[in-house]
Amino acid sequence: MKIAAIYGSVREKRQGIKAARFIVNHLKNRGHEVTLIDPLEYRLPLLKKMYKSYKHGEAPEILEKLHKIMINSDAYVIVSGEYNHSIPPALSNILSHFLEEYFFKPSAIVSYSAGRFGGVRAAMQLRAMLAELGMPSIPSIFPIGKVQDSFDEQGNDITEKKDYEKRIEKFIKELEWYAEALKEKRKSGIPY
User: Given a cut of 90, is residue 191 above it in pLDDT?
Assistant: First the structure.
């Protein structure tokens, strides 16, 4: 499968990038082709015009590059922190630049926070947004509490009991199931 892992923070000393690397590493270890979309590398302007609003060949180069990643992806993993009980603005900005690219493809939510609740309030808001964008999320979410103490810089689980190593396999298998089912169904067309 081709999977886009979309990360949403641009804060200084951001810790969630370690969680994003953890997810990417595990997806790659299962044989998937994964692209990490980091807003510090893909610097999009604030949304003025969606990709689909440009005439063919006239979109900025960064949007063309992201469009190719998004349209060719079979599934999306969204890695979101919790900012003021909601999702980070950089994540909303990335997601909102596209629409049809997401249709009938599943998403999976990884949420995190510095506290013990793991960003679940942001995850619930994100679930509604992803459904509206046409990439409904799988039933499970993957919350990560105390993200700053859970992973090293390479994305390795450094918790004493390897808490996240134990949970990740089931989460990825669920995403794979939905991605495979929807990919097969898309071959026969979409409802409209």
Answer: no
